[in-house]
Amino acid sequence: MKFITYRPTGAGGATRLGVLDGESVIDLASAQLQVPPDMGAALLSGVDLVAAGKAAIASGAPRIPLAGIVYAPVLTRPGKIVCLGLNYYDHAKEGGREKPEYPWFFLRGATSTMAHGEPGLRPRVSERFDYEAELAVIIGTKARHLKQADALSCVFGYSCFNDMSVRDYQKKTPQWTIGKNFDGTGGFGPVLVTAEELPPGATGLRIQSRLNGKVMQDANTTDMIWGVAETIALLTECMTLEPGDVIIMGTPAGVGQARTPPVWMKHGDTIEIDIERVGVLSNPIRDEV
Fold first, then answer.
1. Which is nearest to 189 in space by CA: 4, 47, 17?
2. d(CA 207, CA 182)
3. pTM to 2 decimals?
4. One domain, residues 47 and 140
5. What is the pLDDT confidence band of residue 96, given thresholds at 50, 70 and 90?
């Protein structure tokens, strides 16, 4: 099942939570009144979104063509956004590093995210604007001290993420936070695919980035050093994961900074993140004004 957060074209105001039915979307909160109209609120409330989605699809609720909506980030106000660096063997190697002994975790803020179709903003202060194709994991239930064997029980679904990075700012300090939190640099969407629709831990899925149609990264989620289950087990040793938290699982080789010469995204470019059975996230690149 696929869920989206959206606004009807030409409509302002609050975003809506929808369930996809082919090439149309159903306003889930209107079709199933017990469902909050926001993805984060719905997850926190504990409502069975899959059951509600099935009921909405089986009903005669109005359908809105996808051409008649504007996408919002899958979660407009996610809780924690925990990211992994160097989580593919080939990406660690192209950066001149061996396998880390422990995941390189860092955090993103909600204000850095943007939707499918929304511009990624190359900041005024830098031209070193890079792409990173990544799998996003959306947490559905509260989790603490999970073992790897049962860690996937807290996952509600998966989406695409583009961890756009301002490389010179990322390298200003040993911590990566500042280069990963510029406004308009975290593409998130277009849809959330529920966990039961994919292999456990979303393994075995092809993941690509394409810049202006040219393939830049091409790998498989099986190549991750730490898979989804192990990552969740490690995180819940330390912290409580809550509904609406997001884990961003790292990027494979082929990023712009590792190329000779380096490839930086610029105004007028289009960057796509394509994850098999999950979707295609596309963002134009614009200079910040």
1. 4
2. 24
3. 0.96
4. no
5. low
Token pair for 182: 């510029």
Beta bridge partners of 18: 4, 27
The sign one gets for the Cα dihedral 179, 109, 144, 49 is negative
Containing domain of residue 49, as a range? 2-71
- pLDDT exceeds 90 at position 286: yes
Say whether both 135 and 212 belong to one domain. Answer: yes
Which structure tokens are listed for 230? 């192990």
Q: Which two tokens stand for residue 104?
A: 């390189």
Cα(81)–Cα(108) distance, integer angstroms? 5
- Give the DSSP H or E segment for 89: helix 89-94
What single DSSP character describes residue 177?
Answer: G
Distance CA 267, CA 287 (A): 5
Could you read off the pLDDT of 50-85 as tens digits, one per residue?
A: 999 999 999 999 999 999 999 999 999 999 999 999
- Nearest of 93, 139, 117 to residue 255 by alpha carbon: 93
Concatenated DSSP letters of 43-69: HHHT--HHHHHHHHHHTT---EEGGGE
Last residue within a domain, chosen from 49, 71, 93:
71
Q: Is 76 contained in some domain?
A: no
Say if residue 12 is in the same domain as residue 146. no
Residues 267, 91, 262, 216: what is their CA dihedral angle, to the nearest 10 degrees?
-50
Instruction: Report pLDDT digits (tens) over 267-284.
Output: 999 999 999 999 999 999
